[in-house]
Write a structure and sequence with these properties.
3-stranded antiparallel beta sheet, 191 residues, Nucleotidyltransferase, domain 5, globular
């Protein structure tokens, strides 16, 4: 185990450690099935995942898939306290025991989820409105269409100023920071 891993485990084992927060969402439409996860540390750092599924799933199944993968990632990171936010009331109430899962697939998903939740010292799950789960929702939606677009790598470009201000600078060469492999490219006459 590296020094960084040992330090991480020491921090996670402290009694006063606040819980991590997991935001999950699943999308299923004619384009495909996608999952979105955002795992937020107590300090506010975020790990985001966009997942494209190579299988068809219903909305409920996609929501469970996102929850299961999110909990698995948290478990693999040895996180022991987690608060989950999911916008599908059915899944939340299944996990809380408020609703009974009757469909065989839902029963199987619930069993897997319950098995994962047993790992955590502190586990809670709440239903949140879609507007409070925007990042996971956006990632899930993208995941549903990426498979059919054959795109594996899309750079994220951050434009620091609106076009009016960039044009007022009087230059034809603009530099855009791309957060893809921490590279920066000059783009000549890109406007």
């Amino acid at each position: 185990m590296t020094d960084a891993e040992q330090e991480f485990q020491k921090v996670l084992s402290r009694v006063d450690v606040k819980p991590w927060t997991l935001y999950t969402d699943g999308a299923s439409n004619v384009n495909g099935t996608g999952l979105g996860l955002v795992l937020k540390s107590p300090q506010g750092d975020m790990i985001a995942q966009l997942i494209c599924c190579d299988f068809k799933a219903t909305k409920n199944e996609a929501e469970y898939e996102a929850l299961i993968i999110g909990l698995t990632i948290a478990k693999d990171m040895k996180i022991k306290k987690i608060d989950v936010n999911c916008n599908l009331l059915l899944v939340v109430n299944h996990v809380k025991g408020s609703y009974e899962a009757k469909d065989p697939k839902m029963v199987a998903y619930l069993d897997i989820t319950k098995g994962l939740t047993n790992y955590f010292d502190n586990f809670s799950i709440e239903q949140v409105p879609r507007e409070n789960n925007v990042k996971a929702d956006a990632l899930a939606g993208l995941g549903a269409v990426f498979k059919n677009l054959n795109l594996n790598n899309i750079p994220v470009v951050h434009i620091m100023k609106p076009a009016m201000e960039r044009l007022a600078l009087g230059t034809k060469t603009m530099t855009l920071d791309q957060h893809n492999d921490d590279t920066s490219e000059n783009i000549d006459n890109w406007i």
